[in-house]
Amino acid sequence: MSDSDCWGRDFALLIIEGVAPVSSAHAIAMEDLVVQALFSPCRLFKHGTHRPQTLGVSFNAPAKALQQLYQSFESQKTLFLSEAPEIIQMASHIVRLSLEDHHTDPYYSGLEGAALDVLEWCISAYGALLNPRSQVKLKVIPMDTVTKGFSLFARRDIPKGSYVWEAMGMVPADNASTSTLLSTTETTAEQNQPSGEERVLYGPVRMINHRCKTYNVAFAAHDGTSAFIVYALRPIVMGQELTLNYGSGWFEESCPCTDCTPLECNTGRISEQMPASPRVPGPAQSILEDRFHLVAELKAELKAEGVALYREQRRQESESRRAEVMKNRANRRRRNLKKKKGGPAGSEGDHTVVS
Ligand SMILES: [Zn+2]
C-alpha cells in the first residue's frame, strides 16, 4: 500500500467513525450546499459552469449562505492541504463555528445542530478532495450536449484492487422515502440491512457517474459503520474518470450513460428530466473572480505536482532499465571470458565459439 492510500484510509476512518446518524433531509440540503459553495465556480469563466440541478433536482440554496460558506472555507483553505487528517477535521470545525458565530445570514442561525454536524462532515469530506494526497478530485464535465455536472477523477494512477477511501459515502439513518436520483445504492449483507432497499448516500461517492458496461470501480461497505467506499476493478490511470454501475434498471426508460448514448448524440436527456433551471445562485462577481484565480493557482500547483511525479517515475524506470542492461552486459562478458578460458584449443582472439 502506498503512502497516499494510508493517508486516505486514516482520513476516512477519522471522519467515518466520528459521525452520528443523520437524516436524509439534512444530508441532501447540506451536501449540495457544500459542493456548490466549494466547487461551483471552477469553470464559470472559461467554459461555463454546471447546472446546480445535477447536485439535487430541487437545489436552490440562498446565494448569501453560499457566499458565507465559501468565504469561511477560503479563509481556512491552507489547512485543507495539510498532510495530517486531524488538521482537515479541525479546519472543518473552524468553518462550522465561524458560520454559527456570524449570524449574518439567518440561514445558518436557523439550522439545527444535527444539520450543522452534516455540514461539518461534508466540508471535511469534500475539502479533503483538494488535498494533493487525495487519490481523486472533483471536476465539472459535460453530462450531455446541454448539461454539465460533477464527476470524480483519478489524481494519480490507482492500481487494480486498491480502495479509494476519499471517494466515501455515508448512509443516513432514514433512507428510502427521500432517496434521489444518483444518490442511492443497494444495501449489502455485510451491513445487515434488508436487501434491495434503496438508500441515500451522501459524500463524494455520490459524484461518481453511472456506466452500464465500462465502469471501473465498485462499492465496498465498511463493516460496522454506515459508510461505503469504492475499490478499483481495473487499473485506473491518472486523469481517468471513476465510474460505477448503479445497478441494472437504474434508469427506468432510456439510460443516459455514454455506453448507451455517445455524448455527441446525447442531446440533453438528463437535462430534460430536470425542472427549468433558475439562474445559478452565486456569490458576487468579484468574489467569484478571486475564487477562480485561487482555483486556477491550485490547479496549476496540482498539475505541476502530477508532472513532477510522472517525471520521477519515468526517471526511476529508465534507471532500473539501465541497471538491468549493465547487469546483462556484465554477465555476458563474464560468460564469454569463461568460454575463452575453458573453450576448446584453437579458439583464440575475439572469435566466439558457437557450439
Ligand atoms: Zn447506460
From TrEMBL:
Stored InterPro entries: SET_dom, SET_dom_sf
Record's compositionally biased regions (Basic and acidic residues): 311-327
One Pfam family, short name: SET
Record domain SET: where: 134-247
Protein name as catalogued: SET domain-containing protein
Comp. bias intervals (Basic residues): 329-342
Region annotation Disordered: where it falls in the sequence: 311-355
Organism encoding this protein: Ephemerocybe angulata
